[in-house]
Amino acid sequence: MLTLLGAVVIVAGAIYVRTASFGRLLKDQASNLLANSFRGEVTLGEIDTSIWGALTIHELSIKYGGAPVVRIPQIQLGYSLIPLLWREARIEITVVDPAINLQRESDGEWNLMKALASKSPAAASSGSSAFTIYLDKLGVRNGAIDLAPQGANGPHYRFEATDVDAALAIRPRGLEAELTELRTRVAAPGMPPVDLYTALSYRAANGPAKVSVNAFRLTTQASALSLSGIIRYVHTFDSDMGITIANLAASDLLTILHGYPLRRDITGRITLKGAANAMHAAADLAAGNSRFEANLQGDLTRKAPTFNGELSLARLDLNTLALPQKLAGMLDVSINTRGEGSDLQALVANAKISAQSLRVGSTDVGNFEFMGSAQKGNVQFNGSLTNGPGHLNLGGIAVVAKNNQYHIAVDTKHFNIAGISKSAPLTDLNSRAVIQGSGSNLQKIDARIDFQASRSLIARVPLESAIQAQIKGGVIDISQAKILSPSTTVSLKGSAGIAPGAGTHLSYHVHADQIAPWVKLAGTTGDGRLILDGTASGILRGAKGAALRAEGKLDFQSVHLSNVSVASGHAGYAFENIGQSGWPRGHANMQFTALEANGTKLRAVAANARVDGGQPPHISVAVVVRDENNNDNRLTATVVYRPDQIAGSLDQLILVLPDGAWHLAHPAQFTRDEHHITVERLALANGVRYLTLEASISPAAAQNVALRARHRSCGPEAADAAGGTNRRRPFRGNFDNRNIDRAIDRGKSERKWPGDEFPKAGRSEYDDQLQTVNSRTGCDTPSGSKPSA
Questions:
Q1: Which candidate, 200, 225, 221, 195, places its Cα nearest to that of 211?
Q2: Cβ(599)–Cβ(626) below 8 Å
Q3: How far, in Å, CA of 624 to CA of 620, rounded?
Q4: Is the Cα torsion angle 456, 457, 462, 467 positive or negative in sign?
Q5: How far apart are CA 287 and CA 247, in angstroms?
Q6: Less packed terminus of the chain by CB within 10 Å, N or C?
Q7: What is the rounded average pLDDT of the residues 401-422?
Q8: Coil, strand, or helix at residue 220?
Q9: Helix (H) or strand (E) holding 208
Q10: Percent of the chain with pLDDT over 90
Q11: Is the whole-model pTM more than 0.70?
Q12: CA of 674: how far to CAs of 574, 643, 644, 671, in Å?
């Protein structure tokens, strides 16, 4: 009787839930329940019923803090009440056009979890349910998810055009799920658009939980890779998985990984087999002609995972790597290793690296071989670089402990640096360098450096060298550094601070009785003797870079270089703020005797230059030249240097010529930039004769040059007696046109004087100043009159 009554009730209920009255009732009750249950704002639209046992829910909306989180225009819900008789619930759900905005808030919580959090504490469960719930169909059509794991201002990951077909069974014994199909397009910053397809299943009802990945595919326009396999026991990750790389395009990897160097697509397969405590991984990948293979085993459950395996890279063409420094050659690498996490004391490894026909930039380096091994913190290595008959050998040992002890030796035998650097001279270097000490931090290194070179040649000049230094506390203390050749000695002593803020003080000495070999090394010819002594002090690594002071003196005798010869000379210099932004501040001076250049002979030359170190820098120059007749010619000038312009003033100029001494009447200005050279207010006077120049020169445009010569006397008779005349010749034209137009305005007088080749001087703003100079001759211009043009 009770059974029959229950059946009647269920049938009556099944009929009622298909009525519009039930739809309105359900909407009212559900709306009240949602409003009172969750912290977020959850609302429903209309609920339509169907005689076929289905509901259609319109406009499900979830908001939190006024911001939309979920919007579903339509949910189709199918159900069956009769299975409730045998304690089963069967449901079908299809979600149409859902839009979900998932965002992590500033407190680390997701907005959807906050919105669905209960307003009141959940009541304790009275026990497990004996019901079985079958979600026979879970479908999503054209879904869109916006994922912001770092908040609204962080990167956003979008899953677009998402379709899902799945089924779910919640049994008392466990859960079973079948994802028949999931398709979506993923758009994320820093990666190309990716199409994702997956099909998998989860079983936990009749034994340990396991996952079967029937298909998992990622594809872009250029790449395609897939994963398939099974995880037999989720708890231990006992798995048999395979990743097949049909093609992984270099262009896609470069988009994802900034600076990714390999310019070849990758193909191959990666497999994972075993449980987490005994995982075996293998890889077999190819990129062009190169091959990468790996075979590794490890225990991933330990705090410091253990590993044991082999890796090899064969026939990698270095020309296929896009690096800041262009490389070429063929590289092979093999490594056997085992260890625990990052513990270097537990690492046991053997490595071999071989590079054949190695080329760096435009330099042929040669063949490089390297072998190294590590065991219980002890590292040994040996390497060699072979280039023609020359060899460079590298070897050493290191104890990897808290103080990182090491002993490194580098030997060269008949090594020709020119073989690996075209700009280097021919060398036959036979040397040994040893570095022994401990520590790797610049402040904590305590190491000794010894270098010896013997029976060596540089540009066919015999050479011996010895360097001994100690690195400690961020300072290199150089007790000895000498380079000896048959005619030259170079020495360096002192300390150099290599740690930030450490002081530097170095002294250097060069004594060369014959500079011919070194001049030849510079690509020219000549000889002579020189002695250089100097010091450098300050800081190499300061807060604003280096800040050094250098001073010294240079003496030389019987020097001749190409078409220049000097009997003797001396130079001194002192500059500070070297290494800072802008120019240093300081001065330099030099004196030469018996200087001859291209047939011009001078008894002596003295020059001085001073730089103020300002922004822009001002450079003051003073030069005195004594000619063969013991006449002193003088020049002083000030130059202002900018990267795009050089400007300045000629402040004093005295030229002693056969017709007398020409003096600068007043300072003249000059400017030079990328497009123009200008000279302004240049006026020279020699007694009653004057020469002025105004010029604007542009190599690629019209020229404007006005050169004026003027002769002034006390009257017509004096002028005639002196052969006086005025000439003005302006020149205009273009340097690109050899036929420069000239307009010569000759004076009426046909008399000529030695300066007649100069153009006539017309009226100018300098007349008053020239009159002042003219007055020094003892002649006066008549009162109220002006010099004639």
A1: 200
A2: no
A3: 14
A4: negative
A5: 10
A6: N
A7: 80
A8: coil
A9: none
A10: 48
A11: no
A12: 31, 10, 7, 10
